[in-house]
Amino acid sequence: MSDKIEITVDAIVHATEDTSKIFQAFEILELQEDDFTINETTGHFDNPITMLNAKIVKKQALNFLKKLVELLPQEQIDELIDEIEERTVDSRFHMRLDKQELVKGNVTISEKDTIKLKIHTPIYNKKDTVKTFTEIFQIAN
C-alpha cells in the first residue's frame, strides 16, 4: 500500500445546518475540526453557506481510508470497486458520502446532499488503476 495517498474532503454546510454537528460526524472517520479549512460564501439564492475542505496525507489518509472501508457496507465497497474506471480521473478516485447519514453516524454512498471525497494516489500506468484502487478498498480486510 502506497503511503503516497492524499484525500480531499469537501462539504457544504447550509445555514440551516449546525457546523459543529458536521465536524462531530467527521470524527468517526478520524477527521478533526482543525483538519478543515472553512470558507464562508453564498449559495445560488444568496443564502449563506460554509464550505469545508480538508486535505489529508500519509498516515492520516490511511487511517481515514481504513475507517471508511470498515464503516461502508460491503456491497457499497464492491460497487465502488466495480466502478473504479468510471470514478477515476487522473489518478483521483471520486466518491460521495451522504452528509445527513454521516451526522447520524452512518457511512454510506449517496449522490444527494453529499460530502465529496477524492482519493489520490500516483498511478504511473493507467492499466494499474483498477488494481491500485482495488487494493485501497481492501485495506481493512
Report a brief summary of the structure.
This protein has 141 residues and is an alpha+beta fold. Helices cover 35% and strands 30% of the residues.
Describe the structure.
With 141 residues, the chain is of the alpha+beta class. The chain has six helices and six strands. The protein has helices at residues 19-26, 58-71, 74-82, 84-87, 99-103, 129-137; strands at residues 6-14, 36-42, 48-57, 88-89, 92-98, 114-120. A six-stranded antiparallel β-sheet has the order 2-3-1-6-5-4. The longest helix is centred in the middle third of the chain and has 14 residues, at 58-71. The mean pLDDT is 93.
Ends: how far apart? 13 Å
Approximate strand percentage? 25-35%
Number of helices: 6
Percent in helix: 25-40%
Q: Summarize the biggest pleated sheet.
A: 6 strands, antiparallel
Structural class designation: alpha+beta
Strands, total number: 6
Gross morphology is globular
Overall pLDDT confidence: 93
Low-confidence stretches: none
Encode the helix/strand succession as letters.
EHEEHHHEEHEH
Order of strands in the sheet with most strands: 2-3-1-6-5-4
Cα-based radius of gyration, to the nearest Å: 15 Å
